[in-house]
Amino acid sequence: MKTDGVVQTFSGRKQSLIEDARRERGSAGGPAGSPGPSRYGDGFVFEEKDGRVTLNVLFALSSEKNAGFFKTGKIFETFEAKLLHIESRMGRKCKNSTTDLEFFMKCEVHSSDLDVFVNSLKRVADDVRCMPEEKVPWFPRQIKDLDRCNMLITKFDPDMDHDHPGYNDPEYRKRRAVISELAFRYKQGDTLPVVEYTAEEISTWRQVYQQLRSIYPSLACKQFLDGLQQLEKECGYGEDRIPQLREVSAFLKERTGFQLRPVAGLLSARDFLASLAFRVFQCTQYIRHSSAPMHSPEPDCCHELLGHIPMLADKEFAQFSQEIGLASLGVSDEDIEKLSTLYWFTVEFGLCKQNGAVKAYGAGLLSSYGELVYALSNEPEYKPFAPEETAVQPYQDQTYQPVYFVSESFEDAKMKLRKYSANIKRPFTVRYDPFTCSVEVLDQPSKIQNALSQMREDLKTLHSALEKLSSS
Predict the structure, then answer these.
(1) Of 32, 51, 161, 293, which has the fewest CB atoms closer than 10 Å, so is most exposed?
(2) How would you class 321 by CB atoms within 10 Å of its CB: exposed for 0-12, middle for 13-18, buried for 19 or more?
(3) One of 11, 303, 340, 407 is an active-site residue; which one?
(4) Contact 322, 432 (CB under 8 A)
(5) 350-439-131 Cα angle (round to 5)
(6) Nearest in space to 94 (alpha carbons), one of 62, 137, 51
(7) CATH architecture assigned to 48-132
């Protein structure tokens, strides 16, 4: 860590987020003895299990070929194909200008019959396409599933890290265990636990709060300052008490729909990002060791409550954070690593332009006096935020970042992130349903039609509002 006097950089949370994503990627791959691949003539590789493969078949039948569907069915019967799912819809125009019926079938066939099966379909149907059934990593579909997103990274834990300021303090470690137990017992829907902080813990908070609060007006972005002012007014933010998650979560819920969930330490990259998709921020309740008030090798309540919470009170930033979470659901370990890096250089260490000046919005900066001052000096290099470049930018974990990415605005960053996310390889798109606090996988035409119907109703409401405004 780089030290200037008593001030040290915070480099913990997303450093581990990226490192964990790399470990996930490096350990990817099936176990010994897992089913082998089966290759189809078009170049696709299918996973084979017990001599059978699962594939998705798309094809079209012309209305002039009345017997086409029956012939297709005969092919499935001949090759003992097991139908798992079937959909049909009116299709586009055929070459002969007659109307198609398009079919999507998910089926299971003998791997040895794969080539002959598909070629037989091509003789009786048009536009036959064959794709393997892609294996997608598990991800939460409902907010209650976040109870399973609890994989902790312990490398910076005071019980494991010999360099942790609290490693040789048994009382601190005991206190940490008590607070962590509150998070371990928590289930979605429970009342958020309250921590009765000690005088020593409040003293540590006071030192951090006073030092950072003195430089926020000149270095922090407007959204952060507005959020902090509201928190001081409505949640009792100040130097003499550590805010409770219960009151802060209620505050966020009213403004941006975000809510807090207690966590015992660093989460794995995949689990942490997945929580954001539900507008849930996993938040620690313990505080750093009193011997090092300006440094913590891991996230603590100073980092969370001062760095993250004021920004999550801004609607555009909250939407940006959720977009990263939604983009992470069901993607590969390689893409998790890239999204973790994007998170690091935006939500943790991001800068933005405001009124001709560069301001900080990243939580890692806004909870670290030393790096906040450094980041807005003339020393580091600034680059415009471009997700393709940002996602592969090497990060620095031993000293301050040599490079920071500057966003034109949160709206601009959100649009760029959406464009980047659209190119992430994933066999489906996801949509968050705020009414049920669930994620819907848009992998079937019927689901997309339902989503469009809901959008039409929303547009009708907006159209009605515009009409009333114009007539008033």
Answers:
(1) 32
(2) buried
(3) 303
(4) yes
(5) 100
(6) 62
(7) 2-Layer Sandwich (3.30)
- Gap between the Cα atoms of 249 and 194, Å rounded: 12
348 is a catalytic site residue: yes
- Residue 367 appears among annotated catalytic residues: yes
The catalytic residue among 164, 289, 295, 308 is: 308
Q: Are strands 280-283 and 259-262 parallel, antiparallel or unpaired?
A: parallel
Element (H, E) at 334: helix 333-343
Closest CA to 152 of 16, 277, 288: 16
Q: Which of 367, 368, 407, 421 is catalytic?
A: 367
- Residue 259's closest CA among 289, 281, 231? 281
38 is a catalytic site residue: no
Q: Is 408 a catalytic residue?
A: no
CA dihedral 197, 200, 202, 208 (to 10 degrees): -140
Q: What is the pLDDT of residues 171-221, one digit of tens each?
A: 988 999 999 999 999 999 999 999 999 999 999 999 999 999 999 999 999
Task: Record the pTM.
Answer: 0.75
Instruction: Report the greatest alpha carbon distance in the chain.
Output: 83
CA angle 456, 321, 387 (to 5 degrees): 100
Q: Which amino acids are annotated as binding site, given as ranges? A: 303, 308, 348
The tens digit of pLDDT for each residue in 142-175 reads: 999 999 998 876 545 555 566 676 667 889 889 9
The topology (CATH level 3) of 3-26+138-422 is Phenylalanine Hydroxylase (1.10.800)
Which residues make up each annotated binding site for Fe cation?
A: 303, 308, 348
